[in-house]
Amino acid sequence: MKDTKKLVLMGLFVSMALVLHLVERMIPVPFIAPGAKLGLSNIITLTVLMIFGFKDAFIVLITRVILASIFGGGVSSFLYSIVGGILSILIMELIKVVGRENVSLIGISVAGAVFHNVGQLLVAAFIIKNINIFIYFPILFLAAVGTGIFIGLTSKCLLNYLTLSS
């Protein structure tokens, strides 16, 4: 793919991820555990991971987190997002490579959602200096399975559309 076309596509993916993130911040999510979100911007991260690979998905993730923090997230929001996002994308890439024949896109998405929550809990434990925050993990795990399935299905539809329209 030509460099200019890829650069434009990457810019569009970052823009879409940022818009999804900002829209999601406006949606009240009635989860029991504090900080639980749908993770709509992960639709874009997962899609880029599947189309372009780890490096480009990592760039989209980091750029989106930095811009989201600038547009009103703050330092703690940045820390939760960056650690959760990096842990999530690392596990998704690992599963994508290792479990190529055995794990679906939805499975990759669920694993990413679960490990995003693990990353956020690690940050919370570090900030409050108390590992007992992991008591929220079972609730966050269940939420991550649900949101991971949703994100995986949505990303699968998007990938099918992008493949058909290419």
UniProtKB/TrEMBL annotation:
The chain crosses the membrane at residues 35-54, 66-91, 103-126, 133-153. The keyword Transmembrane applies. InterPro entries: Hpre_diP_synt_I (IPR014535), Hpre_diP_synth_I (IPR010898). The keyword Transmembrane applies. Signal peptide: none annotated. It comes from the Bacteria. Keywords: Membrane, Transmembrane, Transmembrane helix. This is Heptaprenyl diphosphate synthase. It comes from Caminicella sporogenes DSM 14501.
